[in-house]
Amino acid sequence: MNKKYYVYLLQTEDNTLYCGFTGNVEKRFEAHRSGNGAKYTRAHKPVKIVYSREFDTKSEAMKEEYRIKHLKKADKLKLFDGF
């Protein structure tokens, strides 16, 4: 079985976006919600997953995460239907 990797965007309570990558989006989302995710999501509580995309390799997912993190917010919103 080949492991899959995912890039995801979370919407926070204050309508900011957090981008990350993981092997399990739901499990990672719960880690963020419980305060065990990233430092950013401890201060900006995640509300929902608004975008995720699957990749075959960790390298591909990390490259896409890097690309998304450097987009302007308006361009990030274009990845999905916006808020």
Helix and strand arrangement:
Layout: E1 5-12, E2 17-22, H1 25-33, H2 39-43, E3 46-55, H3 58-69, H4 73-77
Antiparallel strand pairs: 1-2, 1-3
Structure write-up:
With 83 residues, this protein is α+β, with helices and mostly antiparallel strands. The protein has a single domain (5-77), classed as GIY-YIG endonuclease, CATH 3.40.1440.10. Helices cover 37% and strands 29% of the residues. The protein has four helices and three strands; from the N terminus they run E-E-H-H-E-H-H. A three-stranded antiparallel sheet has the order 2-1-3. A hairpin with a 4-residue loop joins strand 1 and strand 2 (17-22). The longest helix has 12 residues, at 58-69. The mean pLDDT is 96.
